[in-house]
Amino acid sequence: MRTRSSGTGELIPIDLEIEATARRQSGRRRREQSRENMADEQQQPRSLREYGMPDANGVLSSIVRPNVAATHFELKPQFIQFISQDSYAGLANENPVDHLSRFLEKCDTMKLTNVSSDAIRLRLFPFSLRDDAKEWLNDEGANKYTTWDSLAKAFLLKFFSQKKTSKLRNDISTFRQNEDESLHDAWKRFKRLQRQCPHHGLPDWLLIQTFYNGMTQEFRIYVDAASGGSIMAKTPTPPQLC
To answer: Based on the domain organization, do 200 and 179 belong to the same domain?
Structure first.
């Protein structure tokens, strides 16, 4: 759009996005000022004591936090505390799969316009760690993780050892129903073992067979009666794809 200036025949262009232009110009001025300040600091001589002091510019995170397009974006202290309450330390009795499941469940309660899930998860995940687990993340090197998938995979690779995998797979394979345990509770416990080790690699037919053989004789009789005959004579039905 153009308008005619007073006293001349020339047309003056009108910027229809004047606010966006002003923000770009303001950002450009800030960057130029920052470069000038850095240049001034580099030119200023430093004392021997200053050469031995740590520099805040050298403190780099192993996580690259994605930029967000939202005008106002803030992680509330209450939500950070909510994440920190269930922190993971990297102990042998802790399950990293369970930790990721709880962490994602909490993160999914926060939905912000123009803010990706990765932007939220990558910013919050360090607050969900402590002790050895936090030290691991700090030691990973600067700017190593740019996506949530890469960070989650590295976390599981570090804290879900082959030894832990073998133990949980063995717990599944040797499952036995307790004498005072109901069929419902035994099934829940069996499913929980699988959930704690989603990469167990055991096929469905073997899982069914393991659970059936692990039940007490009394409950095997009940299950056979409910299925109209021995369940071991049945053919497992593969899951249907939707």
So the answer is: yes
